[in-house]
Amino acid sequence: MLGLMRDLFVGLLLLGLLMASPWLAEQVARQNSESDLPETTIVSCEPYFDLTVSRKNGQFAAVGMHGQVTIGRMDDPAAELELDLPGRHVMSLQFSPREFSLLLGCLDGTVLWQPLEPFEEPHPLAAFSSGVSAVSVSADGRLAAMACSPFEDEPAHISIVEISSAVARVQSVSERLIVWLSFTGDGRELLCRDSFGSVLMIDAASGKLLRKVDLPGLGTGPAALSPSGRWLAVGGVQGQVAMIDLRQRRVISQWPVSSMPISSLEFSLRGTMLACGTRDQLMLLNGRDHKMVAEQATGVNQLHFSGNGKKLITSGHDGTIRRWSLPNLIEEQRVASEPL
Known about the structure:
- By secondary structure, the chain is mainly beta.
- It is about 10% helix and about 45% strand.
- It has two domains: about 85-215, Methylamine Dehydrogenase, Chain H (7 Propeller); about 215-340, YVTN repeat-like/Quinoprotein amine dehydrogenase (Methylamine Dehydrogenase, Chain H, 7 Propeller), CATH 2.130.10.
- It is globular and about 45 Å long.
- The chain starts with a helix and ends with a strand.
């Protein structure tokens, strides 16, 4: 009797599984079709530490943990290539706004100009006694700015170089490490963020310090210049963002965004949106009232809007570079670095 009941139970169980299998298959298929994530799951990949996106053709260039530079396209992962830079450990990089070329700052203090289309050997622009902490290309593509780390008793050196001739036009110094710099849209000033969080405004023609804006409580963090050149958004270590009016040269507003330190900031091409990243969150804010437009629970260390301003490209500590549609921040594409 017990054997008969056991056989009956097993039979009913098998029948239930057979009847449920189409439903289970349908649910799995539905979840897969509704998922916005790519099919590939990326784990334990080499992180990217810096990222730049070309306004010329939309390609990205990223710096890996060993200082290598990877160039690729979001729509064609197979087209990735790694720059051959023997003995160079790249620390920071930026595409030229005018041509498909890269400005590279290296750990050994050298600054290189790398033409990519047509491809040429890198041209040396400058050499410092310590590593290059930040680089920037002017909007007209003629000038390159660079800052080196303080070395022993020496201050941090800031230099502006004519790209075509590799001639240094301006030299300036800072007692603190420069973590970010950018030309204003008209190229008249160079904006710098130092390791104490202050913003330095330097005359690009003379190297003279025009003004220093101290930001107590913000600490070291990223900065973003608006397309109009009037506003500078600055991120803080306690998850806050401050807005500086560059005409008045003062902070006009400050508001909390996250409980985590801000890792990256950038204005959209029209200045209507401000993208903001932390190690566990990606956010899109309204550029005027700073209200949240969309957010995603994903870690970000660098972000940039695409050349046409319709997409957002991010890099993360998980070794992925992702493309997001706007304004809803829906993930469209993902590429990954080599597994560790």
